[in-house]
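Lecture notes, structural biology module. Today: joint structure prediction for complexes of two components.
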Amino acid sequence: MAKDIKISIRNLFKIFGPTPDVALEYVRQGMNKADLLEQQKHVLGLRDINVDMHDGEITVIMGLSGSGKSTLIRHLNRLIDPTAGEIRVDGEDIMNFSEEQLRQLRRERMSMVFQKFALLPHKTVLENAGMAKNIRGYTIADFETDARKWLARVGLEGNEYQYPHQLSGGMQQRVGIARALVSDAPIMLMDEAFSALDPLIRSDMQDLLLALQEELKKTIVFITHDLDEALKLADHLVILKDGEIVQQGDPQEILINPGDPYIVDFISDINRARVLRVRSVMSQPDAGESTYAGDISEKDNLESVLLKSGGDMSLNYRVMRDQEHVGTLHMKDLALALVPTAASEDRSKSAA
Amino acid sequence: MATYDSLFSSLGLKEWCSEGTSSGPMSMADLLNKTKGESAEPASIWDLPFPSMDALNESCAAFPQSRELTKGLEQGFLAIKDSLSLVLDPLTQPLSWALDGALYGMLTTPWWIVIPVLLAVVYVVTKSWKLMLFVGGSIVLLAFIDHYSYAMQTLAIILVCAFICVLFGVPIGISMARSDKLQRLIIPVLDMLQTLPPFVYLIPLIFLFSVTESKLYGIAIILYAIVPVIRLTNLGIRLVDKDVIEAADAFGMTPRQKLYKVQIPLALPNIMAGVNQTIMMSLAMVVIASLVSAPGLGVLVLRGIRNLELGVGLVSGLGIVILAVILDRVTKASLARINVSQKQ
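The predicted structure, tokenised, for the full assembly:
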């Protein structure tokens, strides 16, 4: 998937405190977060972030609280200004933007969904959905059809004239998503958008987002602290820790080859059978073999293959992508892939 | 010989002191000492007087006495009074017109127009028949005991003053909310306006303006009553949910859009609470302002006190209570309507 780079972040640093420029020099010389806080009384927000976000992909930035993920996403529309670094959107460095250009960027090219919904409490659902258009100077008559269409698409038909406080959390966030969609912006920033929702509703919303993405192909930057959510949504996964990127790449790749004990720790508790996909564990198609038990898609997750095989570990499957034979899945490999990586085994041994 | 003689001589100021021998009249303490024939010198350290202006003046005649402070303040005020009123007079003239106009309009319009109009306003802002009936009943009661014109005068003054308070108070509150520096500057002024005894406002105003002008009491009322609406506007705008403000920024609102589409609507419950307080404080002040010729129920209260007419005082006091209850209920009911539509 060689897609254009939509947003590119280069050497981004963010330091909070009275004299960030002074502190920046120390950070560049390698001072760590704890020392910086103790000796310089500055808080290291982000250190040397480099990420490319591709057009039409969901980039998930994952990290625990305090890892700087919310700070990072606010740099993309400059709700927070960096201490040093470069942020390019469609090739333009937005650090050089004037206030008017920046406003234009926020209005036309980016929309945002918030953890706490941040709807206008005194406006109806319909008016909230059309907020972005309203800011651009359109009246309700101009955006009403659009707003109704997207509200219906997120499942809020018939709620148009209610006020946000009359809706449940999940419904309020649907309004938040509709608001972002009505703005027609190609980039959608989602700041822990589903974190305040309960698990079932969260899962619904994730499905909704994936379905919308299937047809809209927006560039989505999604922030979360939940690894399951990250793995479900991500085309590109960025893992942040203490303001630094520990690893980034294809989530399947990170799962199979975690590059850091911190990540090993993270992924040790997830349901690998549900998250891992056939394409990540299959081997090259070998011509001689003919005892295929059946065809499976490379996109299937291992859980479905296990179900299909009835637990028989001696079988082999032919892996298909659009009618084309792209690989072979040995059930033995599948079984091995379910065991957390060797790195994590070592860790659990030393811990025991 | 007085206590602090040695202080001045050690500082080498003896000469300067003897230059100015007090020509003013003696203070009461001096007179008492003289009649008792005692020396001013205290017997022991136990009786050491605080080195106040008066005590130092005893040792050094050139040192000013404290009464010269109040005198100086008065003379200073009198000195700038003419130029001050030259500036303030035209600036505040519209207030006189507004008050006179409102009083004239309220009294010359026949009661069978004024009362229905008032009731219609009450219904429009509260949408409550019950409250409208209550207000109607109260006004009819006041009219029945021949207090109608007094009550309407008071009401007219309050409405004009509260309107002007909102007109100036809300923008001041908004600018305070936008700048911490301005807030630091204005808060002490508000504290002073709120704690200064209301009568004290009247004194300099009497010097500045003629007592026959209605702006005299108008200014006193506004100065006293504008404080809550400023405070609560400032507070309300500062309390607007940070997340909503962030969303407004993220979708590219201009500062003006943010103010009109987000901050003011979300601060409205607090602003309205401020308006309610402002109206109640104008009512409190309008009674005191009758000392400087403000018409209305306050005049009757004043008459009750001055002539010890118990009945007049009580009835007009009750009239004020009725007005207060009406104004409070109506503003609270409209506040509640705003609150319902904005529950978070």
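Point to remember: Chain B has two domains: 5-65, 81-340.
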